[in-house]
Amino acid sequence: MLNRRHLRVKVLQTLYAYQLSEDRRVTTFEKALLKSVDQVYEMYIWALNLLDEVSDYVRIDADERANKFLPSAEDLSPNTRLYTNTFVELLRHNEQYKDAVKRYKVSWNFDPEIVRSVFLQLKDTEAYTTYLNQEDRSLTSEKEIVKYIFRKIILKAPSIEQAFEEKFINWQVDKEVLQAMVAKTLKNFASEVPGQNKLADLTPNWEEDRPFILDLLTHTIRYAEEYQQLIAAKTKNWEADRIALLDNLLMRMAICELLNFPTIPVKVTINEYIEISKVFSTARSNTFINGVLDKILNDLQAAGRIRKTGRGLMQ
Q1: For the CA atoms of the chain, what is the radius of gyration?
Q2: How does pLDDT run across 144-167, given as a tens digit for each residue?
Q3: Quick one: 104 exposed, middle or buried, by C-beta within 10 A (0-12, 13-18, 19+)?
C-alpha cells in the first residue's frame, strides 16, 4: 500500500508538473494528484486481473489442443488445474474485485497476446509441472503458483512491463507498491469463503491521507514565495538557477510540513525529504537539503513558528 513517503512523492510529482505548466489552477492539480494515487489501485486491479486471465487461458489452451489435427492423448486430456486454482476462484467471486474490474473497465482483450505469452512462459517451467502434479489443494499451497506467476513472469517479462508502462506512466515508481499490495492480497485471502477475504487497502488510512496530500499540495503552492524566501536566505552563496528545481520543491514541501502539520514530528519531516531526495534528485542533494533545512528549522523554532501537538511532539 501507499505509505506517507509514497504519498509525498506523489505530491512532489504533481508540484513538478505544476511548476512546468502554464495552467495555474490549483484545482486542476488537485484532481491530477488524486488521479495519480487512484491509478496505483487501478494498476493493482489490472495485475490481479492478469492473474485471473492467465488462469482462464488454461481452458482456452485445452480447447486448442483438443482441436488439433492430430491431438495426442495428453492433448485430449490436459491438466487444467490452474483454471480452478483456489485463490483465483476466490478472487473471481470477490465483490470488491468484481466491482473494481467493472469500475476501471479492466480487460486484457486489447492485446490477447499478453495473457497467452504469460501462460506459455509458465507452461514449460518446473514450478508449473510441480504444481500440476502435487496433491495438496489447500489454499496455502494454491497460492504458491500464483506468487510464482506474479514474481517470476509478470514482473520480469519485458513485454508485460512494456504493457504496464504504456498504460501507467508511473509504473517504474509504483511497481514496488504494486508488489506489496499483491503480497498483502495473498495474505488477506485466508478463508475459502469469498466474502471473508479483502483486497489490499490503497493506504493505511485514506480518510487521513487524502486531506494530508491535498493540504500539502495546496499549502506548498499558496506559500511558495514565502518558503522560497526562507530558502534563499540560507543559500546566499548559491545562484538561484544552480539549485535544482526538485531540491527547491522538496525544501518547500518540508517547510510546509514543519509549519502546517502539527501532528507530524519534526524529525520525521526532515528525514522523509532527505530520503526522497536520495532517490529523485542529484547525488549530493540530500546533504545540501539537510544543511539548508537545519538552518531554516533553527530560525523557525527561534521565532516560535514550529508548533507541534499530539504525535508531533515526538522529536
Answers
A1: 25
A2: 999 999 999 999 999 999 999 999
A3: middle
What is the rounded distance in angstroms from the CA atom of residue 202 to the CA atom of residue 209? Answer: 10
- The residue with cell 483454471 is 83
Could you tell me the sign of the dihedral formed by the alpha carbons of 109, 111, 112, 114, in that order?
Answer: negative
Q: Residues 79, 132: contact at Cβ < 8 Å?
A: yes
Domains within the chain, CATH numbers bracketed = 24-196 (no CATH), 223-313 (1.10.940.10)
pTM: 0.93
Which of 90, 71, 4 has the alpha carbon at shortest distance from 264?
4
DSSP H helices, the chain, are: 4-20, 26-66, 73-76, 86-92, 95-103, 112-123, 126-133, 139-148, 158-167, 171-188, 206-222, 224-233, 245-260, 266-280, 285-302
Higher pLDDT, 125 or 236: 125
User: What separation in angstroms does the CA of 70 have from each of 60, 61, 80, 123?
Assistant: 18, 15, 20, 21
Please check whether residue 48 is in contact with residue 98, taking contact to mean a CB–CB distance below 8 angstroms: no
Cell of 108: 486484457
CB atoms under 10 Å from CB of 124, counted, come to: 8
Cβ pair 253, 216 in contact under 8 A: yes
For 119, counting Cβ atoms within 10 Å of its Cβ (0-12 exposed, 13-18 middle, 19+ buried), the class is: buried
Q: Is residue 312 within 8 Å of residue 263, measured between CB atoms?
A: yes
